[in-house]
Amino acid sequence: MDRTRPAGDPGLTVLTWWARAAAVSVLVIAGLNWAGWAAGIDLLTRVFPFSPQMPPWTVALQAALAAAILVQSGKPSPTRGWTTRVWIGCGIAVAVGVLVVVFLAEYATNRPFGLDEVLFSEAVRTLPEGWPGRRPSPTALLSILLLGIAVAVLRLDRRWARVVWFVCLPAALVGPMIELMAGLFGFSLVDQSFPSIVSVVLLAAAALLTRPDRNPVAWLLARPDRMTLIEIVAILAGLPILFGLSRMVFLAVGMSPGTERVLSPVVGVVLVGAAAFYFFQRQQRLLREREQRAEAEKRYGILATTPWTS
C-alpha cells in the first residue's frame, strides 16, 4: 500500500528534482548520440570501444520515455492542464510501446519494415541489417517496452496499476545489468550499448522517484534508518562494479589476463571494505552524538524541574 507524506515536504521536492535530472540526462545522452551519428563521430555513439554502437532508434525511444516522464513530473493538481499532461505522457509511452512491438515483429519475421532507415539513413545504411547494426537489440527493446508500460501507468492510481508499475521497473533493469556485468568482466554476451544501459537505469530511477508516494520509495522514506539501508545497498551493488572497473584498468595498463583476474577482486574487496569501515565509523559517531544529546536534554530537564532552595 502506498504511503503519503505532506505535499510541502522538502524531501519530496528534492526527489522530484532528482527524477527530472535523471530524465534530462537521458535527453543529453540522446543529443550526444544523435550528434555522433550526424557528424560521423563514432565515439559518441558507443562511448567505449568494446561497446556496440547505440542505434538512432534506441535513442529516440528512450528520449521519448524521458519526455513522457518529464511531462508527468511535479505535484498533481485537479486542474484540466494537469490531466492533459498526464494524457500526453501516457500517449507518448503507448506510442513507444507500439514502435517496440513493430521492431520485435521485424525480428520475429526476419523481414525489415523500413523503420531502420528513417533516422540518419545515410549513416545507418553503412551498418549491417538487424543487430548489431541498424535496429535496437532485443534486450534493449524488452527493457524499453517494460519501461514504457511503467511510464504509461505512472499517474494511474489503481491497485493493478501500482502492481504493474512495481513489477515492470525492476524487470526492465535485469537485462541491462546482465549486459553491463558481462561487458565489465570481458564476456561476449554484450549486445546492448553502454549509453543504452545507462539510459535505462536513469529512466527507471526517474520513474521511481517521480512517484515517491509509492513503494519502495515511500517505505524507505518512512524508515528512520533509511540512510543506513541506502549505504548497505550501495556497498553491495558497488562490489561487482569495482571488480569489473579494476579489471579494465589493469588491462588498459598492459597487465596479463591471468594477473588482472587475481588482482581485480582484491582491489574491489579492499575498496568496498574501506567504504564499509567509513560508513560504520560515521554511524557510530552519529549514534554517540545522539546519545550525548539525549543525556544532555535529560539533565537539563532534571535541572529545570528541580526546585531551588535558598
Walk me through this protein's architecture.
This protein is mainly alpha-helical and 310 residues long. It folds into two domains: 10-222, no CATH class; 223-310. 73% of the residues lie in helices and 0% in strands. It is built from eleven helices and no strands. The chain has helices spanning 10-39, 42-46, 56-72, 80-109, 121-125, 138-152, 159-184, 194-210, 217-222, 226-252, 257-305. The longest helix is centred in the C-terminal third of the chain and has 49 residues, at 257-305. The chain is flat and about 90 Å long. Mean pLDDT is 78; it is low at 1-8.
Topology (SSEs and partners):
Blueprint: H1 10-39, H2 42-46, H3 56-72, H4 80-109, H5 121-125, H6 138-152, H7 159-184, H8 194-210, H9 217-222, H10 226-252, H11 257-305
Helix pairs in contact: 1-3, 1-8, 3-4, 3-6, 3-8, 4-6, 6-7, 6-8, 7-8, 10-11
